[in-house]
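Researcher: Good morning. I'm working through a list of sequences from a screen, and I'd like to move beyond sequence-only analysis. For each chain I'm collecting a predicted structure so we can compare shapes side by side. This is the next one on the list. No need for commentary yet; just the structure.
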Amino acid sequence: MTAQPHCARVNGVCNRCDTPVPFAFTMAFQPIVDVAQRQVVYYEALVRGVNGESAFSILDQVTDELMYRFDQACRVKAIELASELGMNARLSINFLPNAVYEPEACIQSTLETSHRVGWPAERLNFEITETERVVDRAHMRSIIDCYRRMGFTTSLDDFGNGYANLDLLTDLRPDTLKIDRELVMDCDSNVRRQAILKSMVSLARTLGTQLVAEGVETREESRCLLALGISVQQGYYFARPQVGELPTVALERYE
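Model: Good morning. Structure tokens for this chain:
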């Protein structure tokens, strides 16, 4: 188990995290919808180049030395842009768990930005990414518990694929589990995927955790997920991420 380095914040300033990153980037926003209620409940902020370049083109520039600054910069950028665009739904921001030294210290720039633009803490959700690199689960649990005390919610991303496995739930208590596209794909015609999704619905109810289906690309997948009890969904079927504006989402009423 690897110990977390000591936070470098002194007198409200952190030389490790607060200095600007040496490249420009922006955020695209993709809606997360509740198809039963026919409304957008979240927008996820996704890294993009200032001219719409892919996330990879930006992430490829993030070295280990820049990881902490980049994580902080993404939070600030997402909140500022969401406010500028007049977002009324909740904002979901990806974060790197290993870029957080001490939760209460490393959240300060986020809190300062939220206060400056008038963004309520209860409308912030943090998605835990790169779970394969979580080597200290006690530290990860402390982050989730700290964020919950501050009024934020948390999500575990890519659940059901690779490293985001069931054993994480023995240590972590996220508010939301985001089901990976691998389990969503063709679920309307794949009985094995349906069986797994049904078991996940039962598990989530027992744990008091909400499910979000990622990567929904067809009407049939969306209808199947709703029938299985997963109404909160995200994917190209509803809208692709957009830079500079919030995507328009037209939600039909399923009969």
